[in-house]
Amino acid sequence: MTITSLLPGRLGLGTAPLGSMFRDVSDEEAAATVDAAWDHGIRYYDTAPFYGAGLAEIRLGDALAGRSRDSYVLSTKVGRVILDEVENPAARELGEKGGLFEHGRPNKIVHDWTADATKRSIEDSLRRLRTDRLDIVWVHDVAQDFHGDEWLAVYESARTGAFRVLQQLREEGVIKAWGLGVNRVEPIELTLELDEPKPDGFLLAGRYTLLDHDRALQRLLPAAADQDVSLVVGGPYSSGILAGGTHFEYQDAPVHIVEKVARIKELAERHGVSIKAAALQFSLTHPAAAAVIPGATRPSRIAEDVAALDEKIPAAFWADLREAGLVSPLAPLPTA
User: 123 burial class (0-12, 13-18, 19+ CB within 10 angstroms)?
Assistant: First the structure.
């Protein structure tokens, strides 16, 4: 089964913000956000144990508990096991993502991609999500942003552990699909070169956006298209900077990114275009993109995302964006 055939639509909900990413999000606000997504017809929900040390999974499970399990698609991730033991969330070593979930649960997070840890992670996720099955399981964060020079060793641990477990679970019909969920293109490129095991698709966050897409277009996306493998695009707003926020790559945006966003906004305003619409539609236009999963913690954001997908964007906007050098000449554009 391909990711494209499995997903119920081109817009899903990423739940990292429900784990109190960047700020303390209340249970009520989280529940209202999931309810808003449901009311707007969104039926694909992506989560992970890492998001708030299980908090996002718990909140998503609570919000979906009264819904028919056959009516939505659910994905979570493996690579972190959440313990009952507590730690200081602000002091966790998270590579480039330090302090990301300091408002989440204090439960200790153990990074482990071995076979046994993968099985335990799935069991724990099922319990937190209050469900009897998962549709898609992503192998989470086996890349440079969390592990620096050690990332290849982590990847190898996942290849001989998590990859094989998930392949077996798919063959047994326990899950429908698996792949990698990462913020860098290199682990996906490596995986596409493997003879076995073969994943069904990938979740790539932050690397196919209006602000950052050059690297993905060079090798990854052509290879994915050649193998008929699709990607779910995560982080289409580049951690918020393309949706009115101040973060890029989960940290305060650097000056050159702020300046680039300002140039894009100037063109968008000139053409009467919402920058959120431009961001979502750009990420979905590549043939390898199966869906996009922006995150949200406010119900009003869901309505904005739905409207952004339907917004009519004049061809002149994309032409001006290309002329200004703000998108790669290799990138397919919605009206090109």
Answer: exposed
Q: Which of 44, 46, 176, 250 is catalytic?
A: 46
Active site residue 97: no
Q: Cβ contacts of residue 278 below 8 Å, gap of 6+? A: 210, 264, 268, 313, 317, 321
Q: Is 51 a catalytic residue?
A: yes
What's the chain's length in residues?
336
Q: Which two tokens stand for residue 242?
A: 């393309």
Q: How far is CA 114 from CA 18, 80, 164, 220, 258, in A?
A: 27, 10, 10, 26, 40
Q: Report the 10 Å Cβ neighbour count for 5.
A: 11
* Residue tagged active-site, from 77, 97, 176, 276: 77
pTM: 0.95
Q: Active-site residue among 44, 51, 208, 250? A: 51
Euclidean distance between CA atoms 60 and 46, whole angstroms? 9
Note down pLDDT in tens along the chain; length 336 residues.
679 999 999 999 999 999 998 899 999 999 999 999 999 999 999 999 999 999 999 999 999 999 999 999 999 999 999 999 999 988 888 777 777 899 999 999 999 999 999 999 999 999 999 999 999 999 999 999 999 999 999 999 999 999 999 999 999 999 999 999 999 999 999 999 999 999 999 999 999 999 999 999 999 999 999 999 999 999 999 988 898 888 888 778 899 999 999 999 999 999 999 999 999 999 999 999 999 999 988 899 999 999 999 999 999 999 999 999 999 999 999 975
CA dihedral (152, 47, 302, 248) in degrees, to 10, reads: -30
Are 45 and 126 within 8 A, CB to CB? Answer: no
The question of whether 176 is a catalytic residue gets the answer no
CA-CA-CA-CA torsion for 20, 235, 306, 301, nearest 10 degrees? Answer: 30
